[in-house]
Each structure stands twice: as structure tokens, then as C-alpha cells.
Write the C-alpha cells for this entry.
Amino acid sequence: MEHAMEDEGMHYEGTCIRPPSEAMSILLQVTLGCSHNKCTFCGTYKDKRFSIKDDDIILSDILFASKYMKRQDRVFLMDGDALIIPQKRLMWILEQIREHLPWVKRVGAYANAKSIRMKSLEKLIELKENGLGILYLGVETGEEALLKKIRKGASSQNLIKMGRKVREAGIKLSVTVLLGIGGKEGSLRHARATGELLSAMDPNYVGALTVMLIPGIQLYQEFEEGRLELPGQKELLLELREMVAHTNLSRGLFFSNHASNYLPIRARLPKGKQQALDEIDSALRGDVGLRPEWMRAL
């Protein structure tokens, strides 16, 4: 009876999300919810209280994947913040993946500043050596006052430090930023500060998403009460342009291919920067079609 659960299928609970780049990965839910779960713009994990799933369920899902997911060579650890799992248990999960899914080339997970801070550089290196190849860090903005306002739980300097620590461990770093989060009034200020943070952090990938208001989240309430005015289509393009103009990466990919955005761009920085700016300028002139409103989604 030891592995009786392995043929029941994967044990997914509640809303499950993953980065666009992990669409073809084996999705392994090792935590429920998010350990922070206070951000004003996010309603993803409001239905769950944060917990780490039982080892027998995690193992059962790995064994199920070993039978039925042999064509997928990446694993993504859900939910919101798998890096927060204590080192010993996280190492055990990576060891089980290596043992039962030997064809898997990379394991990825979401992280936040707190979970990175809790892992020493040595521990991150140990995770890297056991298959953890990429971490996804939600930065949202580089503007200090805005980070406080959206209750991110980290300062810009702290985010830069934690991002650089991930890179130092040899783990790839993918950062997400939020267009529109500064509202209409703070749009360009947010764009500049975010570009400066990204330049200081120097991640491998930057993914720009656009804020979308969902009933039930604090940001929606602010909008409803007239305390937040979101930038329009043109203003969001100008914000994206300002952000790209202020972002200098040593060798990183900046993209806005997420379904929430009006204009998908993909630029390898530094050499593709001017081309990306030209593309945004074409869109601002109306020479390039934008994603229609009905096609935009989270």
C-alpha cells in the first residue's frame, strides 16, 4: 500500500498559477497559497491558507508524473512561494524528482525577498546543484513609496540584494514587473525607478505584466473609490518605453508577451534595446496593432 495514491492523478487544490514560460512543465504543487499573501494587486491565493503539502502527497504526484509525464523535461514547483520550504524538505523534494524523473533538466519555483533571505548563499548553491535552475521573483516596481503602498513586504534595496544573491548562486533569475501599478499620476516615476532597480539587479529575464483589476482585491477597491486612476493604452505604452529606456542589463531578455499587455515585445538587452524602443514608438504612432481589450487576460 506504500504508494497507493500514485494512480489517482495529481493532487491540485484551489487556484493554480504558473509563469507563461512554464506552460509545458510538470506542475508539482508542493505548497498551498503564498507565505506573504498581502499584496494589494493580487487575489490569486485568497482562497487558501499557506501550508506545505504532506510528503506522501508530494511523492505520490512525482510517481504519477514518472508514469504519465515522460515527455515533459521541466518541473515547476507551485504554489506562490515554494522556496520558503525548509532546506531539508526542499532538498528531499529535489532528490525525489532526480530519482523518479531522471529526464527532467530543470526545476523552477516562485520566490520572494523573504524566502531568499532565509536561504544562505551556500544553501542556494546546494539547491542549484540538486536541480533548482530558475527562480521567479515578483518585483512589481522599483519605487520605494509604491512598494510600501502595495504591501510588497520588501524595500527596493532588499529586492536588489536578494536578486543578486540568486544570480551569485548560479540560479537563473526571472523578474516580473507591473505596468500601471503606479496609477496615471505616478506612471513615469514608477517606470524610471523600476528600470533603475532592474539595472542594479541584472536578472536573466524580465517579464512585464499589466495591472488588471479584479473584484475582491484591495487595488480594485481603491479604483472603485476613486483613489486610483489607471493609465490608458497610450500612457501604458509610454510607461513601457520609459522602463525599457532606463533598463540596462548585461545580458538579459526583456519581454512583455503576457496576455495582460497591449504590445508584446521581446528584446535581448543590451543590443536589442533600440529596436524595442523603435517598436514601442511605432505602436505609439499607430503603425502597429495592439492586442484588443477582449483578448487581454491574466
